[in-house]
């Protein structure tokens, strides 16, 4: 168990409004979010960032949360603290840690 001051949400792609002919109206949709779990958002360190940049992946944050197998690569997530948005992005890496004491998931966005 660890400190979880932030909330992790999954961004659900909005259904845009359509005109009379059934064509989507540009920029008429809005983001919907679904709560996943409490989490802890961290800025990525230089060492980890350079490792991902070597693979051509730009990573800004990593997030610790209780073990969760419902997350997927490319899923867009949002981290909030109350009404403040702390981070938003697509999941580029997922690591599951388990052991005698630790049993959590780390995601990178």
CATH C-level class: Mainly Beta
Gyration radius, rounded: 16 Å
Low-confidence stretches: none
Overall SS class: mainly beta
Q: What composes the largest sheet?
A: 7 strands, antiparallel
H and E order: EEHEEEEE
CATH architecture: Beta Barrel
Strand line-up across the major sheet: 5-4-1-2-3-7-6
Annotation field: number of helices = 1
Instruction: Supply the number of structural domains.
Output: 1
* Mean model confidence by pLDDT: 85
Explain what you see:
- The chain has about 110 residues and is mainly β.
- It has a single domain (about 5-109), classed as Thrombin, subunit H, CATH 2.40.10.
- Helices cover about 5% and strands about 45% of the residues.
- The protein contains 1 helix and 7 strands.
- The chain has one helix spanning about 45-55, and strands spanning about 5-10, 30-45, 60-65, 75-80, 85-90, 95-100, 105-109.
- A 7-stranded antiparallel sheet has the order 5-4-1-2-3-7-6, with no helix packed on it.
- Strand 6 (about 95-100) and strand 7 form a beta hairpin.
- The radius of gyration is 16 Å and the shape is globular.
Note the main attributes of this structure.
7 strands, 1 helix, 7-stranded antiparallel beta sheet, mainly beta, 7% helix, Thrombin, subunit H, 109 residues
What's the arrangement of secondary structure elements?
Elements (H helix, E strand, L loop, with lengths): L5 E7 L19 E12 L2 H8 L7 E6 L9 E6 L2 E7 L2 E6 L4 E6 L1
Structure, briefly:
This protein has one helix spanning 46-53, and strands at 6-12, 32-43, 61-66, 76-81, 84-90, 93-98, 103-108. By secondary structure, it is mainly β. The chain is globular and about 60 Å long.
